[in-house]
Amino acid sequence: MSEQSSGQQAPPGPAGGSAGRYQRSTNGLIGALLVTLLVIGGYVAFRALNRDNPEMRPTSVDYLAAVQGAQQGGFDVVYPPSLPSGWIANTVHFTPGDRPAWGIGMLTDAGRFAGVRQEDASLDDLLHTYVDEDPSEGQKTRIDSELGSTWRSFSDSGGDHAYATDLGDDVVLVYGSASPEDLRDLAARLTTAKR
């Protein structure tokens, strides 16, 4: 007996015009999303563990070349001829003109900041700009330097320190978050010698 004679029809196949059906549910969608998130998370974790992260180091600047340029312009800048071991100079600032201003920013071997600022400005203005709005003045300090041996000392509540002395009409400020010993060492190195 044939299929036609029994009255039964075969279910339509892919070519029969009726699309195949599958179950759609919220649980199935959530499961698919979780699997996708796990795959992405695994990939991100794999990349994080196997990636070489470059160590970020501050860029060093040739502050001695800047010293030479400023001196050629007729300005006697204050600078350290050498830095303590492990220190780098990472910024130089020079404003020429009738009231020139000069500055060098450095990082110590411990990553702390130390700066030198020379400017024809009031000490209070320099302290407010580079140290604190209301720094505490300490005792005068003896630092054997070409610039002079008596320096005024300052500190703030955040742990910054500064030493200041006069050089002609200019104020020289050595300041930063570096230790007082490091700042005194920096001040002792300062010179205006021609390069």
From TrEMBL:
Residues 1-21 are annotated as: Disordered. The keyword Membrane applies. Keywords: Membrane, Transmembrane, Transmembrane helix. Residues 1-10 have a biased composition (Low complexity). Pfam families: DUF4245. The chain crosses the membrane at residues 29-49. This is DUF4245 domain-containing protein. It comes from Nocardioides koreensis.
